[in-house]
Amino acid sequence: MSAPDDAGVQVTTHTGEQGLGVVRARIEIAAPAEVVFRTLLDCARANRIMPGVRRCRVVSADPGGEIREHVVKWSFFLPALHSTSRVSLEPDRLIRFTCIGGDIRACEGSWRLTSLDGGRRTQVDYDMWATAPFGLPAGLIGGMMRRDAPIALEALRRECERP
């Protein structure tokens, strides 16, 4: 991990050939893991947490997870992207997602929650890799990930720490 920025967010990104981007990020939040877990899964708050999210909806759910659809608009110059993901859940500990359809050809990632200070705080580790849609250059994808990951984690912290 890189050194934390002024808001305490650690972010590393890496890009590979053929538009593959990888991001790893970490933040500590002054809220219990169950609050963070519920906030991450709340479609009504998705656009306040994740940059560019225009729509989030749960298509189906079962005890092991959900199928979710998102519409994301990352840039004025790019069209809105549709993504369908399979989400597996370990309550208050882990959210894993895998792209199964839409404009993003392949992606996989997780939100790992670790309780701190007797459960009063939570360390959030976010890991994701994705391939670029439409043949976008890897450098552009890496730049968007580096820009968006700290914004999302800081917004998640604000949502979770609200009284």
Short recap of the structure:
This protein is an alpha+beta fold. It has helices at 33-41, 46-49, 138-161; strands at 10-15, 20-29, 53-62, 65-72, 81-90, 94-102, 107-116, 121-131. The chain contains 3 helices and 8 strands; from the N terminus they run E-E-H-H-E-E-E-E-E-E-H.
Would you mind describing this structure in some detail?
This protein has 163 residues and is an alpha+beta fold. Helices cover 23% and strands 45% of the residues. It has an eight-stranded antiparallel beta sheet. Strand 7 (107-116) and strand 8 (121-131) form a beta hairpin. The two termini are 30 Å apart. Mean pLDDT is 87; it is low at 1-5.
Unreliable stretches covering 5 or more consecutive residues: 1-5
Structural class: alpha+beta
**Strand segment count:** 8
- Fraction of helical residues: 10-25%
Q: Which band does the percent of strand residues land in?
A: over 45%
Across the major sheet, the strand order is 1-2-8-7-6-5-4-3
Which value, in Å, is the CA radius of gyration? 15 Å
- Average of per-residue pLDDT values: 87
Distance from N terminus to C terminus (CA atoms, Å) equals 30 Å
Primary descriptors:
single chain, about 160 residues, alpha+beta, 8-stranded antiparallel sheet, 3 helices, 8 strands, about 25% helix, globular, disordered N terminus
Show the helix and strand layout.
Layout: E1 10-15, E2 20-29, H1 33-41, H2 46-49, E3 53-62, E4 65-72, E5 81-90, E6 94-102, E7 107-116, E8 121-131, H3 138-161
Antiparallel strand pairs: 1-2, 2-8, 3-4, 4-5, 5-6, 6-7, 7-8
Helix pairs in contact: 1-3
